[in-house]
Write a structure and sequence with these properties.
Radius of gyration: 21 Å
Number of helices: 13
Number of domains: 1
Helix content: 55-70%
Oligomer: single chain
Strand order of the largest sheet: 1-2
């Protein structure tokens, strides 16, 4: 299991929580979560909590924290991701709910004490595979109507692209040589890009946030220099701008 993959998964979780939380606060009417049974004020509180939790988790990438604190923050992240997944599924956004729930479950798998014995595979790729498989199964057994959107013209295309990219993504190491690994490890972004294009006309935050962040993560994962983002152990935020060069510290003389 590679540390960069773990960080990419934690980053995906924090961005999902942050953008969803901000959107629930600013544009709650773009979610249409009436079927979830959660009142509007409850969604606003949930949005605020998600934003705070996301911000706390993002601090872990730049500030050195104790292991107990990191586990606490990420455990709260898992809780809110699963809560959001349940709310979305209850409102009829099954595939989007799968994204939230599986990201939360895989993040939980990384923080439990037995992660080294139970999680030898790449957690990010496992997350993509679980979301993709569950989405294909749901599209195959459900009707063409999806949360008031008619998918008759796109259902077969989506299922086909999901199946092909899932097969290539999961079995790429067996079928292709290592030099093609970087290409086929990211190919699973295609069905989610098509999903976003299909649902852009709805201007629905519920339909677009999770899939759009999946596309972004699939394309940029393993490129982020996580080690460079972390501040040195004895560094203090704001101290760097105050370290002026000696010539700036000399008193100014006026003629």
């Amino acid at each position: 299991m590679k540390p960069s993959s773990e960080n990419d998964l934690h980053s995906l979780a924090s961005w999902i929580l942050g953008i969803t939380g901000t959107s629930l606060l600013l544009i709650p009417f773009r979610f249409n979560l009436v079927g979830s049974g959660v009142p509007a004020w409850g969604l606003s509180i949930l949005g605020l909590c998600c934003y705070v939790v996301a911000l706390s988790n993002q601090f872990l990438f730049v500030l050195r924290s104790s292991q107990k604190r990191a586990i606490f923050y990420r455990s709260v992240s898992v809780l809110f991701l699963i809560v959001l997944g349940i709310i979305f599924i209850r409102a009829g956004y099954f595939i989007e709910g799968f994204i939230y729930a599986f990201v939360g479950v895989m993040q939980l798998a990384l923080i439990v004490p037995l992660k080294k014995q139970s999680m030898q595979a790449d957690p990010l790729n496992v997350t993509f595979a679980l979301i993709g498989v569950s989405s294909v199964i749901y599209l195959a057994i459900s009707g063409s109507q999806y949360t008031q959107v008619d998918l008759t013209s796109y259902e077969a295309i989506l299922i086909t692209i999901f199946l092909v990219t899932l097969f290539l993504g999961i079995f790429r190491k067996i079928i292709f040589s290592d030099k093609f690994d970087a290409i086929f490890s990211r190919i699973q972004f295609l069905p989610w890009l098509v999903w976003c294009l299909v649902f852009i006309p709805t201007v629905s935050a519920a339909h677009l946030i999770g899939p759009a962040l999946l596309v972004t993560t699939m394309l940029v994962s393993r490129y982020t220099p996580w080690n460079r983002l972390r501040l040195p152990e004895n560094d203090i935020l704001g101290s760097r701008p105050s370290k002026l060069s000696p010539r700036w510290k000399q008193p100014c003389s006026y003629s």
